[in-house]
Amino acid sequence: MICVELSFTDEPARLAARPAHRDRLRALYEQGALLLAGPWDGDSGALLVFTGDRAEVDRLMAEDPYFTTAGVEVVAVRGWRPVVGP
């Protein structure tokens, strides 16, 4: 699994792009490529957990313009090996 941590600002471009981004996340979840995703309390950023490897996550992020929208910063992309859970 790969975890992606984002940081947000109140940039209008980010807020305008968010609905399309969330639709894309729902589709990725339904396809099994995304395990979970959501914003931190206070909307200061978000955590996304993908089921694929780093190359697949890089490809998915490149296909979604939200990750390069003003007001969105990718803080970290890390592999994760959970010991409990799905």
Describe this structure in words.
The chain is of the alpha+beta class. It has one domain: Alpha-Beta Plaits. The chain is built from two helices and four strands; from the N terminus they run βαββαβ. The chain has helices at about 10-30, 55-65; strands spanning about 1-10, 35-40, 45-50, 70-80. It has a four-stranded antiparallel beta sheet, with helices on one face. A hairpin with a 5-residue loop joins strand 2 and strand 3 (about 45-50). The protein is globular. About 15% of the residues are buried. The mean pLDDT is about 95. This is YCII-related domain-containing protein.
Q: What is the helix content?
A: 25-40%
CATH architecture: 2-Layer Sandwich
User: Which fold name fills CATH's third level, the topology?
Assistant: Alpha-Beta Plaits
Beta-strand portion reads: 25-35%
Please trace the helix and strand order, writing H or E for each element. EHEEHE
Number of alpha- plus pi-helical segments = 2
Strand order of the largest sheet: 2-3-1-4
Query: Which regions contain 5 or more consecutive residues with pLDDT less than 50?
Result: none
Work out the count of structural domains. 1
Family: Belongs to the YciI family.
Protein name: YCII-related domain-containing protein
Pfam families: YCII
InterPro entries: Dimeric_a/b-barrel, YCII
